[in-house]
């Protein structure tokens, strides 16, 4: 559901409107189409820059986002990536080196696809902005977090009594903590300062399994991850085109990759990027696939250890689901990084290609498209549904996965209302399939062996607001 329509839909439902009309109003004349025949999502740049650029909702399978008829959500477990940000320092170094080539030529007027450079300036004011969440423009990261908080209050507000203190959880990284706070302000509104309790979980390796960011200290071949920018011939073609239009730049395929990275991040800070139009749609499709490969082989199911890493969260959330809201609580909001979400999906066995992604071609129809999985601000929500008996299923408790606001049916089980999975079946499948994290990743016996902070949390509000200045290129933070 588009963000702007959630409150409108809520009001419409209160007025007795249809719960799911697919957005089609009654035709105004006998010649007006009820449904548009154009589907242009595949042409959107928002689906072809991997995890670098602004949030967009996942392309849906057409399953209704609202709870199925006769069902009510009674528990929510969400993990959200931090909001839109500036490039990392390492990405910034590559960008600046490639920009230096662009600006090295002796010209007073750029030509062709780079003509806009006569008026363009780099959107990162200085090196201290690298790593930071963006605060300007319509795609700003802090705005993303606050907006989703308000939407989830509209959707899940019935799970909070308006009086109790609710803990929520952030990994210990500056921009992640900022996202958690803004989401909290959006969800709790006027009561954020008194009824929300931010718990910050260190990203240190010594946290072991009691972490939102578990690591895996085993040897793993990173050759594929280190050689991705040379795979796509479109990057060479783009370099040749830009060099021909502006002689003397001598851009390489790697430079083109860096410049496309820069373009995809620019939208996080500005409403428009001319750099995006400097590259063709085919070049962006290739760039998106390189990003898919990066996540698949380096932080997803193509890495033999990632399912075990994701099993930490999958297994602990399974315990919450089985304990239910009366024993465990109803709201579990968590905040971390993109590479903490992709292992969870691997552990759950969803969006796994039938075979490893090829390195010599694009397998169109590939389910592992990161623009749909972990854009900036991307999030995975697990819903526990309490359902009445229907013609499809008996009364009971069901589980539903929602990725970036699109229902993601669980591969091995979809027999419940709205393609949900009976909790008992979900439990049986995960108990059978989840690998052991501590064994696979050689976790020291002196480190925590399981996730416990969802049950052992603080209820103070001391960390709800920052009290110190933000450090230059801040990373790890615990305040």
TrEMBL record:
Keywords: Disulfide bond, Glycoprotein, Hydrolase, Signal. InterPro entries: Acid_Pase_AS (IPR033379), His_Pase_clade-2 (IPR000560), His_PPase_superfam (IPR029033), Histidine_acid_Pase_euk (IPR016274). The active site is at 82 (nucleophile), 338 (proton donor). Its EC number is 3.1.3.8. SUPFAM superfamilies: Phosphoglycerate mutase-like (SSF53254). Disulfide bonds join 71-387, 413-421. The keyword Disulfide bond applies. It holds the Pfam family His_Phos_2. Residues 1-19 form the signal peptide. It comes from the Eukaryota. Transmembrane segments: none annotated. GO terms for molecular function: acid phosphatase activity; inositol hexakisphosphate 3-phosphatase activity. One of its GO terms (cellular component) is fungal-type cell wall. Belongs to the histidine acid phosphatase family. This is 3-phytase. It comes from Aspergillus ibericus CBS 121593.
């Amino acid at each position: 559901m588009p963000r702007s329509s959630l409150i409108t839909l809520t009001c419409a439902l209160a007025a007795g409107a249809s719960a799911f009309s697919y957005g089609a109003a009654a035709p105004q004349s006998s010649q007006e189409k009820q449904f548009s025949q154009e589907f242009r999502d595949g042409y959107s740049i928002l689906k072809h820059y991997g995890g670098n650029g602004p949030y967009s909702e996942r392309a849906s399978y057409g399953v209704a986002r609202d709870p199925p008829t006769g069902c009510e959500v009674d528990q929510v477990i969400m993990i959200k990536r931090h909001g839109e940000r500036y490039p990392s320092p390492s990405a910034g170094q590559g960008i600046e080196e490639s920009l230096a080539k662009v600006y090295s030529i002796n010209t007073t007027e750029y030509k062709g696809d780079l003509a806009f450079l006569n008026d363009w300036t780099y959107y990162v004011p200085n090196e201290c902005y690298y790593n930071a969440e963006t605060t300007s423009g319509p795609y700003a990261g802090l705005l993303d977090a606050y907006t989703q908080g308000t939407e989830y209050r509209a959707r899940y507000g019935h799970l909070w009594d308006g009086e109790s203190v609710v803990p929520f959880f952030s990994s210990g990284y500056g921009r992640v903590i900022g996202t958690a706070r803004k989401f909290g302000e959006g969800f709790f509104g006027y009561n954020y300062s008194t009824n929300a309790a931010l718990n910050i979980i260190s990203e240190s390796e010594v946290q072991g399994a009691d972490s939102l960011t578990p690591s895996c200290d085993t040897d793993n071949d990173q050759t594929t991850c280190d050689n991705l920018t040379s795979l796509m011939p479109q990057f060479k073609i783009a370099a040749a085109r830009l060099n021909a239009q502006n002689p003397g730049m001598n851009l390489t395929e790697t430079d083109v990759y860096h410049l496309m990275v820069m373009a995809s991040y620019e939208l996080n800070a500005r409403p428009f990027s001319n750099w995006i139009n400097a590259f063709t749609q085919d070049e962006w499709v290739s760039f998106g696939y390189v990003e898919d490969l990066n996540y698949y082989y380096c932080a997803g199911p193509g890495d033999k250890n990632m399912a075990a890493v994701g099993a930490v969260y999958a297994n602990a959330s399974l315990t919450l689901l089985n304990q239910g809201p009366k024993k465990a609580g109803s709201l579990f909001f968590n905040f971390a990084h993109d590479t903490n979400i992709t292992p969870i999906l691997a552990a759950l066995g969803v969006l796994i290609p039938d075979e490893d992604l090829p390195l010599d071609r694009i397998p169109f129809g590939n389910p592992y498209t990161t623009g749909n999985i972990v854009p900036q601000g991307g999030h995975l929500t697990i819903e526990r549904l309490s359902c009445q008996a229907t013609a499809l299923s008996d009364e009971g408790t069901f589980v539903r996965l929602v990725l970036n606001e699109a229902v993601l049916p669980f591969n091995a089980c979809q027999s419940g209302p709205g393609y949900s999975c009976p909790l008992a079946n979900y439990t049986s499948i995960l108990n059978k399939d989840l690998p052991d994290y501590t064994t696979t990743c050689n976790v020291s016996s002196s480190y925590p062996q399981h996730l416990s902070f969802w049950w052992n949390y603080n209820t103070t509000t001391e960390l709800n607001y920052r009290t110190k200045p933000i450090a230059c290129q801040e990373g790890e933070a615990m305040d």
